[in-house]
Each structure stands twice: as structure tokens, then as C-alpha cells.
């Protein structure tokens, strides 16, 4: 068993990135400190080694390579030369690292024992979900796994690992030079710089017929380079899924974009010199079904135009503060086959949606650039919101945020509200002041069957009493299930500090308002089958509502009332 374990340690050493030693911002460790640390590591290992046995991995039989690994690991995790100057601190850290290595070894051995009975094709598909560095490690588990990682139809790595495992990658690509890659993923983080030749390496992967390509990082605030993504990406006949995050894209070639198999595209904070990059990309994807666009804070695409006959799912997010004053943005969507729309764009001044007859579900969290735009008049804004609502009025399932409801209610007062005649399921976040308008909103949903209310309590905005008098048609004819859920306030959710709500006047007022809401639902819903109440145990709302139930006139005798306690 010692031989594969030695190989395992050797592999760990080879794939160990040199952050502290190689990164230009870090001060290299001097040779004197390195030699002193190495001696201390050797002494600690000799002192802590157990008596050799025949059935355990014997680290004492190969102190040199093991010392090399521990030294590399300790050096790369240190922030200064003095960090491990204390012998006791060093011993504790070494003990921790040994435990970590052994646990990893035994865990991999356990996994290999369970996987050994599976056919190679299934094992390689399982290994496809592991980073390539971990997939390589299975090579030393047993003879059963010897070189099996070379059959895995994909590569996944961090950029800082590229130099360390480039020989393994070269071997992999050489052996699989006639095969297509199913997946390639390379991730960058904040302290990486693009490895020399990264763009060429990605271009080579594309030429090999990769199906799933994932390049970039969601942790960076600025793109890595302006040309990391090679130009041959626009002419791939095999790409099925493309995800790019925080990278720069070269302009499409003059002969256009042709991606005949591409079905899924995820673009996050992409930079480009071509303002029509997204439009050109979509036009070259005849079978595109799923599109996600997270727009950058300095987006160079003033008009995000999405025109597609095949698109079924579209998600757009644009919520960062503007840095270029006076610059206007717009979104135009024309997708007759679209079934799901996730719209989280607070900065676009104009929003146009067309041909939404197939729309089934929409998730809206936007204020329509309210208070941001300086050129859009109130009348123009009203028309934009009204047209947007008409465009999505055929939706069957809606999720809507409190900020969006506030904006819609502001325009409802001016008569600019559209009915959702096909809506059967609604999930909406309300603060109590908005609950006053709940019946008016429900009047626009005559076929509603399932209603979920997320209740927020905003102290400064709450009315003294909740007076609900209007009874919409859906309560009388169609509403079958209502869920009422208490959620944390914006301040509380953001800071994640409070774990309970003090029993103060605020809490009493909150419960009073919510009891009136439950009363309104039960006393006006004629076909209600289920009412689910989820309140915080700290407010005791469930208990007080339960005690108040006998005083309610329940219009639907067969209604089941379910109480749940939850933590905020």
C-alpha cells in the first residue's frame, strides 16, 4: 500500500501551486529560513511517527518526498517568513496537514472501493464532475484506476493550476487527440493573472470540438483581459453550452457568427468593443434555448436586443450603480417561444417586450430605473411600464418583488395597470402598507388559484390599521390555496444579526395587522382548500392567530389550516 501512497504524495507535490513563492507581489522565502524549516519539519515527523505496521501507510518510509510536500504546503500558505518561527505553531500546523492528507487518502480509497465494480464508461462520467487535479489523483488509488482519468471526456481546472499540471494536460490531449471534449472549464480568481498562452490554449480546446465551455470568474470586479476569449469561438460547430464571466471578448469576424448547436449561453460582466456583440451572438444561434446576461457596471451595450424564435428561457440582471452619467440603456425582447423570463434590471430606461404568447412564468424585480433616468419623463415612464405589463399579461405564474409592487402601485393610481387574465399562481412580497392595495392587485387576477404572500414589516412605513374591504373575483370563485410567510426585513436580512424579535409595540402591531389579513382571507374565500401560515417563533403570531380563529367566519368549511414555525 505504501507505493501508491508515495505516488499519491508525489502527485500532491507536483500539483501544489506556488502562491507565496511565485506570485510577484509576495516576498520569496530565503534559503536560510527554508533550510531551518525543513530541519524542524523532519524532527517533528521523526518524533511523531508511530511504530511501523504492515497494514497502514507508513509515512516514515519516505520522509524526503513527504517533507517536500509539507514544506511546499506550509510555505505557500504563509503570509510572512516569521509565521512558522514558533516550533509549537509549526508542529500544530504539520499535525493538521497530516490529518488532512490521510483523510483525503482514505476518502479516495473508500470511493475507489465502491466505484471499482462499475464499468469504465460510468466511472469516467463520474470523474467528469471532479476538477482535473482531483481526477488525476485517482490514478494512484489502485490498479483498477490506473490511467482511467485519461478517458474522462473533459478538463476542469483553476488558472493557477495550469502551470503545475500542464504535463498531465499535454498527455491527456495527446492521447485524446482524435476525440471530442465534452467539457472544458477554467476558473480564475482575484489573485491570478492570465497564464501565458491561455487564449491559445482555449482556442485549441475549441478546435477539438468541445461541447461545454466555461471560462472566467464570478469573483472579479473587472475583466481579466480584453481578448481572452479567442475569435474561433464564433465558428464552433460543436458548442452546446457556453459560459463566460468577467472576461473580454474579441469582436466577431466580418463573416459573422455560426453556432449551429449552441443551446445555452451565460454571459456575466463581459466587456467588448462591439456594442452589438450579444445581438450578433444570438443571431448566429438558431437553436438557442437558454440565455442569461448579467450586465457589467460599465456595459458597452446600450441596447440589449434579444430576438430569437427558439429561445425558451431568458434571465437578465443589471443592478449595479451607474458610473457613466447620462448614458442610457434599453432592453428589447422579441421571443415568441419564451416560457420563462427572469427580469432583474433596475437601470434600463426603456424596456420593450414583444410576442410573449408562450410565456408561462415570470420573475420580476425591477424599479424601471425609477429616480435614475434624467431624460425619461413621467408620462414616458408610465407608457413604458404599461406596455411592459401588457406584453407579459398572458403569464400563468408570477413572482414579483416588493420594490416592483411599489412602482406598479404608483402607476395604478394613474390607471396604468393591466389585468393578468391567465394568471393562476402568484408569489408576491408585501410590506404592510402595500397590503392595503392587495385586493386591487388581485382584481386583476380573475383565475388565480394559488397565492403566496411574503410579509415584510417596515416600521417607518406601516399604517395604524389594515382595512381590506374590496373582495376580488378570484377569492369568490377560484382561489384554492394561500400561503402566508413572514420574512426578515431588508435591514435584518442584510446584516444577518438579529435572531429574534423583541416583544415590543412593534411586534404587537405586526401581529395585529397579520391577524386582520388572515381574517380577510378566511372570511372572503369561498372555495379555499388550504391556508398555510409560516411565522417566526419569536413573534408568537401562529399562536395568537390560532387563538383568534374561533372568532373568524370561515366561508369555506373544508379549508385546512396549517401552522408552521420558522426562524428568520
UniProtKB/TrEMBL annotation:
It comes from the Eukaryota. PANTHER family: F-BOX/RNI SUPERFAMILY PROTEIN-RELATED (PTHR31900), PROTEIN WITH RNI-LIKE_FBD-LIKE DOMAIN (PTHR31900:SF33). PROSITE patterns: FBOX. Residues 112-148 form the F-box domain. Pfam families: F-box, LRR_At5g56370. This is F-box domain-containing protein.
Amino acid at each position: 500500500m505504501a507505493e501508491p501512497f508515495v505516488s499519491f504524495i508525489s502527485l500532491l507535490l507536483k500539483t501544489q501551486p506556488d502562491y507565496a513563492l511565485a506570485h510577484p507581489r509576495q516576498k520569496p522565502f530565503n534559503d536560510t529560513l527554508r533550510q531551518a524549516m525543513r530541519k524542524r519539519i523532519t524532527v517533528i515527523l521523526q518524533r511523531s511517527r508511530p511504530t511501523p505496521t504492515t497494514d497502514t501507510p507508513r509515512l516514515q518510509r519516505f520522509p524526503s518526498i513527504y517533507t517536500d510536500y509539507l514544506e511546499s504546503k506550509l510555505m505557500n500558505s504563509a503570509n510572512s517568513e516569521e509565521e512558522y518561527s514558533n516550533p509549537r505553531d509549526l508542529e500544530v500546523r504539520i499535525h493538521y496537514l497530516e490529518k488532512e492528507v490521510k483523510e483525503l487518502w482514505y476518502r479516495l480509497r473508500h470511493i475507489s472501493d465502491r466505484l471499482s465494480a462499475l464499468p469504465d464508461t460510468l466511472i469516467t462520467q463520474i470523474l467528469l464532475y471532479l476538477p482535473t487535479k482531483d481526477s488525476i489523483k485517482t490514478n494512484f488509488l489502485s490498479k483498477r484506476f490506473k490511467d482511467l482519468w485519461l478517458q474522462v471526456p473533459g478538463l476542469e481546472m483553476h488558472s493557477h493550476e495550469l502551470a503545475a499540471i500542464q504535463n498531465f494536460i499535454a498527455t491527456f490531449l495527446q492521447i485524446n487527440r482524435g476525440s471530442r471534449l465534452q467539457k472544458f472549464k477554467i476558473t480564475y480568481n482575484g489573485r491570478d493573472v492570465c497564464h501565458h498562452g491561455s487564449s491559445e490554449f482555449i482556442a485549441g480546446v475549441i478546435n477539438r470540438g468541445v461541447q461545454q465551455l466555461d471560462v472566467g470568474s464570478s469573483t472579479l470586479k473587472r475583466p481579466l483581459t480584453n481578448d481572452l476569449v479567442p475569435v474561433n469561438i464564433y465558428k464552433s460547430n460543436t458548442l452546446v453550452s457556453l459560459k463566460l464571466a468577467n472576461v473580454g471578448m474579441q469582436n466577431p469576424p466580418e463573416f459573422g457568427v455560426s453556432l449551429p448547436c449552441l443551446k445555452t449561453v451565460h454571459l456575466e460582466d463581459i466587456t467588448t468593443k462591439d456594442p452589438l456583440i450579444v445581438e450578433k451572438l444570438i443571431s448566429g444561434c438558431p437553436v438557442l434555448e437558454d440565455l442569461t446576461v448579467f450586465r457589467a457596471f460599465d456595459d458597452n451595450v446600450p441596447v440589449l436586443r434579444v430576438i430569437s424564435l427558439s429561445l425558451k428561457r431568458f434571465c437578465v440582471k443589471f443592478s449595479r450603480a451607474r458610473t457613466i452619467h447620462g448614458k442610457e440603456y434599453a432592453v428589447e425582447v422579441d421571443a415568441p417561444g419564451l416560457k420563462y423570463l427572469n427580469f432583474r434590471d433596475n437601470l434600463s430606461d426603456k424596456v420593450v417586450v414583444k410576442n410573449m404568447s408562450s410565456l408561462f412564468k415570470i420573475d420580476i424585480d425591477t424599479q424601471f430605473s425609477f429616480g435614475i433616468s434624467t431624460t425619461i419623463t413621467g408620462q414616458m415612464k408610465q407608457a413604458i411600464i404599461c406596455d411592459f405589463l401588457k406584453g407579459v399579461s398572458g403569464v400563468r405564474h408570477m413572482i414579483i418583488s416588493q420594490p416592483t409592487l411599489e412602482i406598479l402601485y404608483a402607476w395604478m393610481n394613474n390607471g396604468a395597470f393591466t389585468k393578468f387574465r391567465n394568471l393562476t399562481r402568484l408569489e408576491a412580497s408585501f410590506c404592510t402598507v402595500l397590503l392595503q392595495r392587495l385586493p386591487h392587485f388581485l382584481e386583476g387576477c380573475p383565475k388565480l388559484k394559488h397565492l403566496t404572500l411574503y410579509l415584510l414589516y417596515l416600521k417607518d412605513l406601516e399604517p395604524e390599521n389594515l382595512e381590506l374591504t374590496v373582495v376580488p373575483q378570484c377569492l369568490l370563485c377560484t382561489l384554492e390555496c394561500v400561503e402566508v410567510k413572514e420574512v426578515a426585513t431588508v435591514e435584518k436580512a442584510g446584516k444577518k444579526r438579529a435572531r429574534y424579535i423583541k416583544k415590543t409595540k412593534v411586534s404587537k402591531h405586526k401581529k395585529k395587522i397579520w391577524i386582520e389579513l388572515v381574517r380577510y382571507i378566511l372570511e372572503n374565500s369561498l372555495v379555499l382548500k388550504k391556508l398555510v401560515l409560516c411565522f417566526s417563533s419569536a413573534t408568537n403570531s401562529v399562536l395568537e392567530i390560532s387563538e383568534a380563529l374561533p372568532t373568524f367566519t370561515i366561508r369555506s368549511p373544508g379549508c385546512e389550516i396549517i401552522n408552521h414555525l420558522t426562524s428568520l
